[in-house]
């Protein structure tokens, strides 16, 4: 019967092209508005590393004191003193310090200009912790960390620029006039939101082209290219900076059980208490250990305008649906005589429901197709509303295509419930008598 | 085939109760051709819609083909309408968006019949009413008499046990009315049970038995059967 009802529905829709067009437009515009804004919301609120987001933890230890923080939230980053102490204690199976640096990549060819590239100085564990995808070679080792080795991992894009995409493992790359041996080449990797560097990027950035050991970057006195917050003026010189109360380094750990997390948190509390006892801090321990999604939530990575526009567009969809309800009601009730005849000839109420809901579903499919076209245009136009680094994330991928069609069909069928219920209540006797 | 005992149909509003049928008794045997006559507003059509399970009743009993129908749910009533009853209306009630073939097909669709059998039955029914050549025409392209023939074909296609006709010639001129009446008589001769509501005495006289309704009650006795000796003469008491 489905094919029969679909055939009846399409015939009925063709009979009233203006009414049909109005309904299709209402559904199409409503769905397109909500799907366009949803595409932005989805991009900004999605889990950037779903396979591991529940085992990766950001660490915060309050080095500023309650007077210098808001709502009891410790600073987003740690001091060098705290990072090195926590790394040394090694209370988590995997742990990685990371901070952004900026380097000039100087090509071997003297005729080519140096390139300013974003880079991260990080511990070796980070590559395995974040499942960073290697296409040549591998990460440097903990031993390299210990030895402060001059090694680097570069991305495919930089490898293409410097080595025309050839195998560059073992070759040298010149960063700020210093040579680093390439141990691995990664696919371009930029999870969005860029969870491990939210404070410096706002969560949305294209990622880095170069990765070098944290220990080597410290040796080279490479300053952070991100935020640097100090509660007290640091003493002069790099050494003074390293031993200051300035926060600028992120610390991530990988832990796979609640017991490991509890042990790690206890250690941090103990460490903070020890700092208090030693007179470095005069406040109670205040530490936070949050997994990826808790961290993104706490940092409010989803832009406010993304949430607001999603709510507004969903409201618009509701308005469109209310209009569709009215149009469907008018359309269906105009066919009361036909309903009466069908009921007299053996159609049950369930048959009437099926016939009209399938007709509404056909409107939904047409509205979905229009919605797809408009959503495609909408995602191109998101730069008008959102910053460039967020707007570029809004894409019409297969999931969004499916969701747009599904939303249109479901919305149409939901809108048809009341008109169909009314249609099914038509008393055949009255219709047939009145004819 | 169709037996109503002390049947009542009351329309209630906040201020008034109107009896459309009151202590209505009728017994139509299988194979009978009964004409139900009476003045406008007497309850003839209400009787027919209740008989066709298009409307519920307020009191009494109604047995259709041996089944007491008052407790049946919507699905069961729809199934009985579809399988046991054929309707012929004064206004034809064809669906204007469907062509003749598709109109006749409607009850067969709800029966879940396979396409080849549907097609066979539709063409047989259209042959029967002389409109096989018009299968792809739309109702608006047919005369009133032809439309009523299509309606009869639609009623016949499902091979119902009972044909209910409400003023089947009411919208037709004399010649067309005669043709439709002859068709109904032919169908009856082949064994169908027909209950026809009419206020045309000439048409009523052609039925096997007349039942007269006034103020929602059967007030007349049946006439003697005239067409088939095997049919039972029935008495409908007021």
Automatic annotation (TrEMBL), chain A:
Give the record's keywords alphabetically: Cell membrane, Membrane, Transmembrane, Transmembrane helix
Spell out where the chain crosses the membrane. Answer: 21-41, 308-332, 353-379, 399-418
Membrane topology reported for the UniProt record: Multi-pass membrane protein
Sequence ranges assigned to domain MacB-like periplasmic core in this UniProt record: 20-217
Specify the ABC3 transporter permease C-terminal domain's residue ranges: 311-428
GO CC terms for this protein? plasma membrane
Which GO molecular function entries does the Swiss-Prot or TrEMBL record give?
A: transmembrane transporter activity
Q: What is its main location?
A: membrane
Per UniProt, subcellular location reads as:
Cell membrane
Top-level taxon in the UniProt lineage = Bacteria
Instruction: Tell me what this protein is called.
Output: Peptide ABC transporter permease
TrEMBL record, chain B:
Among InterPro entries, the record links this protein to: AAA+_ATPase (IPR003593), ABC_transporter-like_ATP-bd (IPR003439), ABC_transporter-like_CS (IPR017871), ABC_transpr_LolD-like (IPR015854), MacB-like_ATP-bd (IPR017911), P-loop_NTPase (IPR027417)
Q: Which organism is it from?
A: Luteibacter yeojuensis
Q: What does the sequence similarity comment in the record state about its family? A: Belongs to the ABC transporter superfamily. Macrolide exporter (TC 3.A.1.122) family.
Q: Which GO terms describe its cellular component?
A: plasma membrane; transmembrane transporter complex
Record's keyword terms, sorted: ATP-binding, Nucleotide-binding, Transport
Name used for this protein in its record: ABC transporter ATP-binding protein
Q: What is the lineage of its organism?
A: Bacteria, Pseudomonadati, Pseudomonadota, Gammaproteobacteria, Lysobacterales
Q: Which Pfam families match?
A: ABC_tran
- What residues does the ABC transporter domain cover? 5-238
Which Gene Ontology MF annotations are present?
A: ATP binding; ATP hydrolysis activity; transmembrane transporter activity
Classify the source by domain of life: Bacteria
